[in-house]
Design a protein that fits this description.
The protein is built from 1 helix and 8 strands. With 135 residues, it is mainly beta. It is globular. The protein binds zinc ion (ZN) (2 copies). One zinc ion (ZN) binds next to helix 1.
């Protein structure tokens, strides 16, 4: 499936081909800190199937507890998280952060990982009172 996206400020624009069978929610503590919120939702590209129209994201390499390194691409201007991928050479699969994708409404997660660190209240938000726009 072909998708496109952009960061909040619009400096970074991209197109990608994704695997719609691989959409997940990650509750790991790294995703909580890097996203600044409760969990992250990620869709994976096909190998090397991501291209940027002009400006490339800035890269932050995080080292996980396991020692694994992951390159985190984000907009240097507005801070929007764009992707994570492997470090080094070889074909790359990108885990796109779905909040920057134009098609995000249609990208429904089919799996959750790192439930061990999921926040206690995260399964209850469907029962909270809601309004259609901000206060
Ligand atoms: Zn930006
Ligand atoms: Zn994670």
């Amino acid at each position: 499936m072909n998708v496109n996206g952009r960061c909040h400020c619009g400096v970074i624009k991209y197109t990608a081909e994704i695997d719609p069978q691989r959409i997940l929610i990650c509750h790991c503590t790294d995703c909580q800190a890097l996203s600044g919120t409760a969990f992250r939702t990620v869709v994976f590209t096909l190998p090397d199937a991501l291209s940027f129209s002009s400006v490339e994201p800035k890269i932050y390499v995080k080292t996980a507890q396991s020692g694994n390194k992951r390159a985190q691409g984000f907009c240097a201007e507005c801070g929007s998280a764009i992707y994570a991928t492997t470090v080094g050479d070889g074909p790359k699969v990108y885990g796109l952060r779905i909040g920057t994708l134009a098609q995000r409404d249609f990208l429904k997660p089919n799996k959750q990982i790192w439930r061990r660190s999921a926040l206690d209240w995260v399964d209850d938000i469907g029962t909270l009172p809601g309004v259609l726009e901000g206060p």
